[in-house]
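Feature request, filed as a ticket because there's no other form

It would be nice if the structure record came with a short human-readable summary line next to the tokens. Right now we just get the raw output. Example of a typical job, pasted below so the devs can see what we mean:
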Amino acid sequence: MKVEATEVDGRKVYSVRGFNNGVSRWLNKLPTLWIEGEVTELRRQQRWASVFFTLKDPVDGATLPVQMPRGQFDALDLGLEEGERVHVFGRAELFEQRGELRLKALTIERFGLGAHLAALERLKRKLAAEGLFAAERKRTLPRYPRLIGLVTGNDAAAKRDVLTHIAQRFPPANVLVAETYVQGPRAPVSIATAIGDLCRRGVDVIVLARGGGSFEDLLPFSDEGVVRAVAGCAVPIVSAVGHEQDTPLCDLAADVRASTPTAAARLVVPDIAELRARLVRSRDGLRRGAHRAAELHAQRLSALHERLRRAPLLALERRRARLDTVHARLGGLSPAATLERGYAIVRRGEDVVRAVDQVAAGDALSVRVTDGTFGARVE
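Raw output as currently delivered:
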């Protein structure tokens, strides 16, 4: 409806409500448009039907309030944080009750590096939920690999570093190199194909190597197809992509992450100098152990010989001791021993007198004591 003014003292006077309504209807005629700015003052409540934030111009600090229905905002699943730069598509509108100008957002998009980071974060959460980064999936590297696979770029410094250090550490090592694109739109498919080919050719371990580069250069190693190829590889994979501070998603899916291609070479092969030193130590230990075992055996034989030599004497001594014990016991039970203790043997003729009623007055007796015999008569 048309906003009508009131005549007051010859003037056209509009009410606040009428003015705001007119401005609002005029703003509604403006087209929808994209606006770029940084997200600040992001506010949302569970009971609110809308999400509110402010777009800030990074150059001069100018601000613009933004309102967006909560359902539309949540459906975008952007995970916006303070300070992120975005493009907001919407139209200008006036909140008539308070006369506040704001932008009604229809959609929001990250752009530049922020867009890539957001996409990677969403992919990371998705793959993590599937268990592709789980620690229990990690496999140990073979100690002495017979054939090592290397996925790297053509004439790349990373390729040279890996091959040089493998040859220095363990010259007998066999390396099968799969040269592939390591950046650009063709890289993801090429890398995933190379990993599959090396597995089919019977390698025991694979090194995925690329030197440092920009964030965009390393994006192929965060491609979903590459990450799934790494996670599904039949043999352990060492990821040596970029510098230590770089963390492409293939690092999380690999069995082992190496900070540099040189470090990857140290992980997949042993140091032959250390192996030789270990063999020398083992040989010396075996020699000392054999000598010690021989010495202990000789000592046991000597002790056994001495025991065998002394056995007859010990047996004789034990038998003599037992005889002495029996002799002493028998001696203690003999009549002579009884006589030595003050007892006597009384006989009437050939009979031993054991009771009084065995003798009568006048009988002649024979009394034996410890040192002889004498006669006696009963009274």
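Something like this underneath would help us a lot:
The longest strand covers residues 33-43.
Residues 192 and 226 are 5 Å apart (CA to CA).
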